[in-house]
Design a protein that fits this description.
Pathway: Steroid biosynthesis; zymosterol biosynthesis; zymosterol from lanosterol: step 1/6. The chain is an alpha+beta fold. It has 21 helices and 13 strands. The strands form four sheets. The chain has a six-stranded mixed beta sheet. Strands 5-13-10 form a three-stranded antiparallel beta sheet. The protein has a two-stranded antiparallel ribbon with strand order 7-8. It binds protoporphyrin IX containing FE (HEM) and 2-acetamido-2-deoxy-beta-D-glucopyranose.
């Protein structure tokens, strides 16, 4: 045994002895091992502080209110109003369990109950966890990259056809135009050509009637009360269901197969081999329409407003399009879309600054512990509602440099600020167990639209940069977003 080895052994023995002595000594002082101490609950805002809180809410809005508490109390705190306890978890360090926790420990609870009369009791929160998990797999399968390739051509056709009507030059409300265009794309790629060609107007006006009446405050609070709003909702649901049932039945009876998402849902099978029923297919397709419509149209509008407001980024996107056209000609397919990485970052940054779903909520069924970045531990008790407010967590300065500045390059090579902060610091599409299955599809739509616009028009934002309308259930650009356009071929 040489000197070094013996020195190591001596050190190990020494540490071991010390540990033993220490343990015995402690044992001597406390006859029984102390009960394992539980971390304290998070700091609570109650009583008189609530008055101040409400004042901030009314005068400055939700975001400022939460930001104030975050600055004062740190990344974990509880707001208690009328015995209702909501604990805010801000930042990736304290968010892992929120996104990844088992459905039995943490779930949407009754928060999404209002979706049952809207989507039907055959899907989502109308069925048990196991069935819901399988149905979620149907979404993931129907929207996976291998399936998406075939939609590029149809999306392009819709986009080209739509902008023909713009003519040579003019002004338009971008928000309204893109909303309309995205409905046409959804009709074609999600619902299929029967709806797109024969019943577009009827389907989308009924769908609007359904969602509008489902999202009224009164329907959210009392989804089953016999009120005019809930009755209008139920009538619209029945009408929509009838139209979609005809489409599904006619495809089945004539043995016709299409490439759209509806077809994928018709062909989906549960683990035990059972195929989806007509009612399930209809619930699933309404849910997809609902999940993708407003999110995609606000994202396309914000992306445009941001680009037109930041000439240097617009210039980078134009250069990228020129390079791609030089390489592939006018042709756009799935792979060309994947090469539009600058445009991708511009969409990603627009989403980061204007997340269509700005706060996620869950219900806690089993106590859990979080540790903050500073090392404090807190136990969040069962019964609490927990909230992950993106409007705050997207703006954490130790993760995102100058978060208020529109800076798509933060996601580029060398910086990748969304990755260095850890797994749950970019959550516009949520993450973990409930991550949006439509993410790739959403990017595809927005890229098809914006690459077309940039290749064919010179655009200018002629109204002021839009504010956010927080009064909508899902926030959107306030008022009209007016652009002037002039058709010109992209100089190559
Ligand atoms: C920019 C556009 C989009 C954004 C920002 C977005 C965001 C999200 C988020 C945050 C969730 C999870 C909500 C939660 O955890 O409570 C979600 C769920 C979902 N999204 Fe998206 N989404 C977008 C577009 C789409 C599109 C285009 C589709 C379909 C074509 C889609 C389909 C879905 C579905 C089916 C769910 C529910 C998944 C489940 O039940 O767990 N989304 N989306
Ligand atoms: C959960 O937390 C609550 C409140 O702190 C506590 O009363 C309860 O005993 C805890 N439950 C478990 C199983 O630890």
């Amino acid at each position: 045994m040489d000197m070094t080895t013996s020195a190591v052994w001596f050190a190990i023995a020494h540490v071991f002895m010390f540990a033993l002595i220490f343990k015995v000594a402690r044992g001597g002082i406390t006859a029984h091992p102390p009960p394992r101490s539980r971390p304290p609950p998070p700091p609570v805002v109650t009583g008189t502080c609530i008055v101040g809180l409400l004042r901030t809410l009314v005068t400055k809005g939700f975001r400022e209110m939460i930001q104030d508490q975050y600055t004062k109390l740190g990344s974990v705190f509880t707001i208690s109003v009328f015995g209702l306890k909501t604990t805010f978890l801000i930042g990736p360090e304290v968010s892992a369990h929120f996104y990844q926790g088992l459905e039995s420990d943490i779930s949407h609870g009754k928060i999404l109950e209002f979706t049952v009369p809207m989507l039907g009791k055959e899907v989502g929160y109308g069925v048990d966890i196991a069935t819901r998990t399988e149905q979620n797999r149907f979404y993931v399968d129907a929207l996976k990259p291998a399936k998406l390739r075939c939609h590029v051509g149809s999306m392009l056709q819709e986009v080209e056809k739509y902008f023909v009507k713009w003519g040579h030059q003019g002004t338009a409300d971008l928000k309204q135009e893109l909303e309309q265009l995205l409905m046409l794309i959804s009709a074609r790629c999600l619902l299929g050509k029967e709806v797109r060609e024969q019943m577009f107007d009827e389907v989308f006006s009924t769908f609007h009637e359904l969602t509008d009446n489902s999202l009224r405050l009164i329907s959210l609070l009392f989804p089953y009360a016999p009120l005019p709003t809930t009755q209008r909702r139920d009538k619209a649901r029945a009408r929509l269901s009838k139209m979609f049932t005809e489409v599904v039945r006619s495809r089945k009876s004539s043995n016709r197969f299409e490439e759209d998402v509806l077809q994928n849902l018709i062909d989906s099978k549960y683990k035990d081999g059972r195929p989806t029923t007509d009612a399930e297919v209809i619930g699933l397709i309404i849910a997809i329409l609902f999940a993708g419509k407003h999110t995609s149209s606000t994202t396309s509008t914000w992306t445009g407003a941001r680009l037109l407001n930041h000439p240097q980024h617009l210039e980078s996107v134009i250069k990228e399009q020129q390079q791609i056209v030089r390489k592939y000609g006018d042709n756009i397919d799935y792979n060309t879309l994947l090469e539009m990485s600058i445009l991708h970052c511009c969409i990603k940054e627009a989403l980061q600054m204007h997340p269509p779903a700005p706060t996620f909520l869950r219900k806690v069924h089993t106590n859990f512990t979080v540790q903050t970045r500073e090392g404090s531990e807190y136990e969040i008790p069962r019964g609490h509602t927990i909230a992950s407010p993106l409007v705050i967590s997207n703006n954490i300065p130790y993760i995102y440099k100058d978060p208020d500045v529109y800076d798509p390059e933060r996601y580029g090579r060398g910086r990748e600020e969304d990755k260095v902060g850890g797994k749950f610091c970019y959550t516009a599409f949520s993450g973990g167990r409930h991550a949006c299955p439509g993410e790739a599809y959403a990017y595809m739509q927005v890229k098809v639209i914006w690459s077309h616009l940039i290749r064919n028009f010179e655009l200018k934002l002629v109204s002021p940069f839009p504010e956010t309308d927080w009064l909508k259930v899902a926030p959107e650009p306030k008022g009209k977003v007016m652009v002037s356009y002039e058709r010109r071929p992209l100089p190559i």
